[in-house]
């Protein structure tokens, strides 16, 4: 059973629970006495070297909000299962020492929310660590809104009295959001410029939903950093690898600097972007006679990008304080 189907079935179960009683407005209940907590929602990664990006974002969020407890949640079932299996493998843990123990018992965001609620209803701020408001983000939005709509009698028994979700890094794709993200990518642009190479950012994308924000972001980067050549290619959806090849050939690009437009430099970055297989982005470019150099660091390792999520959380907290005055 696929992750998306599991998510859908879980959300349908929540929706059935919503029928028990009328639903009040999202987050409209008066704040309970218990201290708010934070849940960070991300797809996850199985690559030990890529975990640093997630941990850096978590570290900066903890530093910004030391009064709140922070929880991690991986949305991918297979990734969580792999980490649990590794947790039972003493030899693997010895070889990969230094990784935080929480990875070996990582849960999905819904389970993290349930664990918090089990200790007593309180405000919860869920922060998406995704790049765009795509399908993964959409699933988190449906989940949080559904849980927020659960009601009870008496009203003070409401299981989730206040729960909100922070936008992804690029969010709704406003000019301000695109500029903030573009500024965070300045070090990558400068690296590419120093190498006299075009910067190629590889994002995940989606075959089911066209995500216009990627194209808007590409246009914003090109305008902001002109005349530096910058392109975005997606593993799924448009603009795809074929679109990129056509664009770089048209621009007569001779050298490229590849970097992941992803929080972590995991399997996609290692294999789909920089891998040796014939269909990797690096191999396709080399086959056209274009020189390639790859950067295998996720955006989460970039403090400026990580701080975008800190700002998203700060917005959530301010909205909570305003709603519960």
The number of distinct β-strands equals 8
Over the alpha carbons, how many angstroms does the gyration radius reach?
21 Å
Count of discrete domains: 2
Please give the largest β-sheet: 4 strands, parallel
Low-confidence region ranges: 1-9, 11-29
CATH third-tier fold name of the largest domain = Rossmann fold
Helix fraction by DSSP (H/I, runs of at least 4): 40-55%
Q: What is the spatial order of strands in the main beta sheet?
A: 2-1-3-4
Protein structure class:
alpha/beta
Q: Mean of residue pLDDT? A: 91
Q: Which word captures the global form? A: globular
Distance between the termini: 45 Å
Give an account of the 3D structure:
- The protein has helices at 3-18, 51-64, 77-87, 90-95, 109-118, 135-149, 175-184, 186-194, 212-224, 241-250, 267-273, 281-287, 303-323; strands at residues 37-42, 69-74, 123-128, 162-166, 198-205, 230-236, 255-260, 291-294.
- It is built from 13 helices and 8 strands.
- Helices cover 46% and strands 15% of the residues.
- The strands form 2 sheets. A 4-stranded parallel beta sheet has the order 2-1-3-4, with helices on both faces.
- It is globular.
- By secondary structure, it is an alpha/beta fold.
- Helix 1 (3-18) packs parallel to helix 6, helix 2 (51-64) packs across helix 13 (303-323) and helix 7 (175-184) crosses helix 9 (212-224).
- The longest helix has 21 residues, at 303-323.
- Residues 1-9 and 11-29 have low confidence and may be disordered.
- The protein has 2 domains: 3-172 and 303-323, Rossmann fold, CATH 3.40.50.1400; 186-299, Rossmann fold.
- The termini are far apart.
């Amino acid at each position: 059973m696929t992750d998306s189907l599991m998510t859908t079935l879980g959300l349908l179960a929540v929706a059935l629970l919503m029928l028990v009683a009328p639903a009040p407005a999202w987050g409209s209940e008066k704040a309970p006495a218990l201290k708010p907590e934070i849940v960070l929602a991300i797809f996850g990664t199985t690559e030990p070297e890529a975990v640093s990006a997630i941990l850096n974002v978590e570290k900066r969020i903890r530093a910004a909000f030391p009064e709140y407890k922070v929880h991690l949640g991986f949305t991918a079932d297979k990734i969580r299962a792999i980490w649990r299996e590794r947790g039972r493998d003493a030899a693997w843990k010895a070889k990969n020492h230094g990784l935080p123990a929480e990875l070996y018992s990582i849960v999905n965001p819904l389970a993290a929310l349930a664990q918090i609620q089990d200790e007593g209803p309180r405000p919860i701020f869920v922060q998406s660590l995704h790049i765009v408001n795509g399908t993964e983000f959409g699933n988190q939005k449906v989940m949080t809104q559904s849980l927020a709509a659960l009601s009870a009698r008496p009203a003070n028994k409401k299981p989730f009295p206040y729960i909100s979700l922070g936008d992804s890094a690029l969010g709704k794709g406003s000019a301000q959001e695109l500029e903030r993200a573009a500024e965070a990518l300045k070090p990558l642009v400068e690296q590419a410029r120093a190498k006299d190479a075009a910067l190629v950012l590889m994002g995940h994308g989606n075959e089911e939903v066209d995500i216009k924000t990627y194209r808007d972001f590409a246009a914003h980067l090109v305008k902001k950093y002109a005349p530096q050549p910058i392109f975005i290619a997606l593993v799924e959806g448009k603009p795809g690898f074929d679109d990129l090849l056509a664009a770089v050939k048209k621009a007569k690009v001779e050298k490229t600097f590849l970097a992941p437009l992803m929080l972590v430099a995991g399997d996609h970055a290692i294999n789909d972007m920089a891998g040796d297989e014939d269909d990797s982005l690096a191999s396709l470019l080399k086959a056209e006679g274009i020189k390639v150099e790859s950067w295998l660091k996720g955006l989460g390792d970039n403090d400026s990008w990580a701080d975008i999520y800190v700002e998203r959380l700060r917005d959530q907290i301010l909205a909570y304080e305003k709603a519960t005055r």
